[in-house]
User: Fold uroporphyrinogen-III C-methyltransferase from Enterobacter chinensis.
Amino acid sequence: MSKGKVWLVGAGPGDASLITVKGLHCIRHAEVIVHDRLVNPELLAQAPAGCLIIDVGKTPSHHPVPQEQINALLVKHAGEGRQVVRLKGGDPYVFGRGGEEAEQLAKDGLAFEIVPGISSAIGGLAYAGIPVTHRHYASSFHIVTGHMCQGNDPQNWHALAQINGTLVILMGMTRLTEICQQLIEGGMSAGTPVAVVMYASQSRQQMAKGTLIDIHLEVERQKLHAPALIVVGEVVNLQEILAFSASHIALNQVVV
Ligand code: SAH
Assistant:
């Protein structure tokens, strides 16, 4: 019987040491690693000698490896009895198509496990100095995509504007101005604080702050682009006092 199995591992938002203990263990024992563009190379360096490393990274407007082919790769290598790590940015089930990949594995009767990760939407924001909730400013948070799958209904920004919580938008950079405008039309105050965080938790992290009406100007000035988080809500105001500089932990020193 085949011992093949796929671990869908969340790599965390970027700082390599934000991977879980279990995720690092999986990488160190993998025979094949299939990884995304946003995955830190420091994590790949933890793979054992002889591990086959396959980059299926996507850029926003360019999909080098179609999803069906990624699914087929996982099925092939696990089917042939290998220990496969599917390494994905953030958490595998937060807009990462992890659900689709696991579905395929389940359909094909292959063994799989999910190793959750720290999503950029929460941990990435924390590294930028923004707490996703705060008792005085936000009692809920909503993680939404700015980019809908073709054929799906567009995001109901007017309804989202009515929810009194922090709004975290992933994959929204190409439509930033339109999204802000829709939120204002939906009833949000034009002065609502907004931050855009690019490469959250990485050494190249960069941020723009403003309001719904003017954030696009600062984003243009700094030339920010994907991958970035757009966060809308009062918690953005805490950034000034909660920003910190993160320490670096080398993975080679981590014993798992
Ligand atoms: N599964 C991932 C999200 C995948 S969708 C997670 O849980 O974080 C990809 C989008 O996530 C990007 O377009 C961007 O909006 C956001 N993203 C992921 N990593 C990021 C990072 N380090 N900094 C800023 N945005 C990030």
Observations:
- The beta strands are 5-10, 32-35, 52-55, 83-88, 111-115, 141-145, 166-170, 193-198, 206-211, 228-232.
